[in-house]
Amino acid sequence: MGKETPSIRKTLAAASKATTLRIHFPEAAAREAGVRLSTAASKPAPTLSMSVSTSASSPDARYLAVSIDLDAPFPSFPFLGPILHGLHVDLVLDAAAADDDGFAPLRSAAAAAVADEEEEKEEEKEEEEWLVPYVGPGPPRPSAAHRYLFMVFAQPPALDAAGIRALLGLGTDVGLMTRMRWDQEAFERRLGLGEVLAGSYFLTRA
């Protein structure tokens, strides 16, 4: 119930000291941990940018990002949490597009491969790489603000989207029951993931 695994605790602690991940929505952004966003602003699927200094050593590395609500339904009694809000796989770091702060966008490998095509097709590819589609925050109205945590890992080279889906036993449609009480520790163990490379969270309430 509301279990904060070692990786979650370490990510929260690290995010309070330094920014390694930025979360971008069309109308808002969490450029540092603990930023308060409205539920409306954080409803669309976000894009992520990661500090180049924390990336994997190989330029060909792929990444996966998991998004979870740590505080469902209430921070004081999170018996439904964590809730999985999205799982994005087959991401690549576009280091050439790094900004002046050293943050580079994480893009789907499929989108990067068709970067010279029209924007509409690129957006379609981005959607395909959400193995578990992103669902925006929906904390109940009486609740205090929830923490929505994003964690980025190096994706094991032998794993692709189909392999990850099989290891996690996920169907084509991932319903609420699968998302609730998400076992982050088992997720990391089944995929053979290493340490969290980058992470951050934002806060929102109804």
Automatic annotation (TrEMBL):
Transmembrane segments: none
InterPro entries found in the cross-reference section: PEBP, PEBP-like_sf, PEBP_euk
Protein's organism: Rosellinia necatrix (White root-rot fungus)
Disordered as annotated region, ranges: 115-134
GO biological process, one term: regulation of Ras protein signal transduction
Extent of Acidic residues compositional bias: 115-130
Protein name: Putative protease inhibitor
Pfam families tied to this protein: PBP
Source domain of life: Eukaryota
GO molecular function: peptidase inhibitor activity; phospholipid binding
CDD domains: PEBP_euk (cd00866)
